[in-house]
Amino acid sequence: MISRIKILFILVIYVLLINTVFAKSINTLSNGGKVIKKNKNEDQFYLIYIKNTFGEFNIFSKPKNMKRQEIEANEYVFSVVDEIHALIVESKDTYKNPENNSNQQLFNYGDSEFIYPISATGDKVVLLGYLSKKIVEKVKKINGVTSVSQDSYYEAQEAGLHYYDEQEILMETKWKNLTVRENADFHLSLLSQGKYDRDELANDGYDTNYYYPSSAGEDIDIIIIDTSFNFNYFEFPRTHNRTLKCEAIIHNGKNEIRIEPGNDYDCGNQQIQHGQWVADSAGGLHHGTASRANIYGISLPSDTSFRFKVSDVIAGLQYVLENMIKPHKTIINISLSGLSDKISDNHKIQEDLINQITEKGGIVVAAAGNYNFEIDCTARLAYVPCYFNSTICVGGIDSRPEIGIKNVYKKAEYSNYGKEVDVYAPYFVYNENVSDNEIVGKRHEGTSFASPLTAGIIATIMSDHPEIEFTKDSMLEYLLEKAIPFTFDDEVQYIVNNGKHTVYAKNTTTPIHP
């Protein structure tokens, strides 16, 4: 009877026994990170305990000449196995993923491949079965079954295993999946933990990891208006169907140079590399906050002091407005800042363009500037584009690791400030870029990098919540809700954080909760 049931069941479900239903699973990524997936599947392995009063029952050996008590014990145990097996066949529609578990090398003891004994001692026999939640309740009622418990895990106590708790992080952040970039740049680690200023952590080793949702900005466009771009090196692998390209080259207010497909991986004056550093901060594999976001470069000419013509900035914004906005999936980063006369037409046209981009569903993120001035500095002059209400304006914190972790939660000395600055992010960063056909790594400083780091954080939030149509206002509200507060000029300011506030330390597994 069992063999006929078994053949019928296999036609529907090939095999249900492979250990894929984990409470957590960790896979190594090309970037050295680890992906920890939440379990959303109710189907689980269960330990089923039955009471055996008939005699000795062996699992891995079967004597040639069994005693009467041993025969009775075998018959009894496998009668229970047969009953549960038949129940699985009858209830196959209650499984969420019946196609799972087709690659496991099967342990074959008895007639069933789906429920079988694994241990026996005294009057207890332990069966292992892969059951849906509904079947569990029925199995508990079978005569002879004393208990049913979900299979669980022990952790190896080897030194060097990670000190953070994946499930705790997922519970706190509500992310769908988690990726950990271990031993990341200091500027990244600051963005995914709370204040590391408790005395009890002073000697326990700073947590250098960057924690972020595994979607990492996937399917979100980050448009960068800047100098030159180069997407043809290891910081920008073309994986996950990611787009990395130069979109336009603006010169004297025109999109003068047509970029041919296949030749769009670099553009602009490669000796003036500000745009490359900015792109790396937004979406670089090792140094950026959103390593799966699409990155589009709008190249503007500049001199060696990184000065741009207002006419080219206006034309770049016009190009983006007309050609590039995917509603609620587009972020425009502008790491440029300059004084503007509030009543001039130049000022008004830039504000109008950014307003229209925002109305179409784009989010404009702008650098506050590096002059240690207020954004709204006089009755007539203000630093733009940060002054405009439709931007998310980003200032910088003093993210130099050498000053000590307790001292970084303050405004960077030269960052602009004022009520127009919405959030702050690391001012000092590390980037790698191509220079004269060589990879050059260097620390850079400025709100030019605080801005794309924030743009990347926004991209990760948007990709992890595709069901939400974020606007500039709703995104800013979200950022402020997750932000880390600090004080400047007796006013509360906010440091960007991606939602993970729990603080871990390398030399202890005891977290500090906010």
Structure description:
The protein has 514 residues and is α/β, with parallel strands linked by helices. The protein has 2 domains: 2-21 and 41-150, no CATH class; 217-486, Rossmann fold (3-Layer(aba) Sandwich). 24% of the residues lie in helices and 26% in strands. The chain has helices at residues 2-12, 68-90, 133-139, 166-173, 186-189, 274-283, 310-323, 345-359, 447-464, 472-482, and strands spanning 26-28, 34-37, 44-51, 115-121, 124-131, 145-150, 177-181, 210-213, 221-226, 229-230, 244-251, 254-255, 266-267, 294-299, 330-334, 338-341, 362-367, 381-384, 391-397, 423-426, 428-435, 438-445, 484-488, 491-495, 503-505, 508-512. The protein has an 8-stranded mixed sheet, sandwiched between helices. A hairpin with a 5-residue loop joins β1 and β2 (34-37). α1 runs parallel beside α2 (68-90), α6 (274-283) packs parallel to α9 (447-464) and α7 (310-323) runs parallel beside α8. The longest helix has 23 residues, at 68-90. The model is unreliable at 1-32, 35-40 and 101-109 (pLDDT under 50).
